[in-house]
Amino acid sequence: MKTTALFIILLFGLTACTQGQSENPTETISYSESELIAFLNSIGQLKPDAWIKELTFEVDSVLYNQTTLNHELTDSDFEKLKIAAKEGIIDIDFVKRIFPKLEFDTLLLIADDKLPIEFYSFDKNKNNFKEFAILIGYNGFFWNNDVYFFNGKKVIAKHDIYHRYGLELKHFKDENNKTVIYYSVNYQSGTGIWWHQFNFYRYNNEQLTPILTEIKNINLRPPWHLRAYWIESEVVNERPLQLKFVYYNQFYDISALDYSIIDFINDSTIVTYRIDAESGKFSPDFNGTKQNRNKLLSYFHSADESLFINAHYDLFKRKLNGNDPIMRNAILNYLNELKNVLENR
What we know:
Elements: H1 3-22, H2 33-44, H3 49-64, E1 67-72, H4 75-87, E2 89-91, H5 92-98, E3 114-121, E4 131-136, E5 144-151, E6 154-162, E7 170-173, E8 179-190, E9 193-204, E10 207-220, E11 228-238, E12 241-252, E13 261-275, E14 282-285, H6 293-297, H7 305-311, H8 313-320, H9 325-343
Antiparallel strand pairs: 1-6, 2-3, 3-4, 4-5, 5-6, 7-8, 8-9, 9-10, 10-11, 11-12, 12-13, 13-14
Helix pairs in contact: 2-9
């Protein structure tokens, strides 16, 4: 699936949700507490397999939808490329010849039919042309670019990266001393709404292998949704790979005159990603953390709201049975709104 197509699907899904929320507002039903508890229990007992499969496929399709290449440059072309990389510009005829499947906008062309390029070395020596990447045509105005990855003279992969705010290409050595590169992909952006994923790849036998996609940051606020939520991660360690997640989920306090919001979840945790011996990919180890795969997937903009309830069912039950009447009312109001949305679909 093309990334741009995914944006349209997400936006359509979000629009449909808000339309469902706002249609026939005078016909909103106030369900009884026992009906809302039964509604909560019915969702909590569902198996999340279908949701997980759909959401995992969604981000995996972008992670894997990159082009594998096996194109070796001649010695003379390789030397010419090194000079162009240091100068930051490259001749258009030359770039067409050495970069397979290149696509670019003619608006990127600068004087004398040249393209701007950027050079990224994945070595301590930033002038090393062993494992490196060339970013084609970024001039600060375009939101996506072709990036070519090299192993010496050989072009091994082309990635079409929708970064929107500028490419941040980072790298480290994993526990097996293999080079891992990662960058942020933009899935959605707007006022009060955004979604970025980290995509990780490993240099492996002259190939660039996809090994992980994980949340970088996600935010969704009214009027887009029934609740407000935010999550952000950062790489806090590389050997082993560890990501720290900071996140919250908020409901509305309908008893307050200003219709304020209260925290249902406000926390952080660190997840370690181990290299799976069979697949070679990074696999999250959620033992001893406050997250799991279902909870993380529930932050996706395209996630069914029922997955959020299902993944946090125990927390819903504890808070409903707690001693905080404001929280209890906020949860019941959320469940009532959601039940109305689902009934009106």
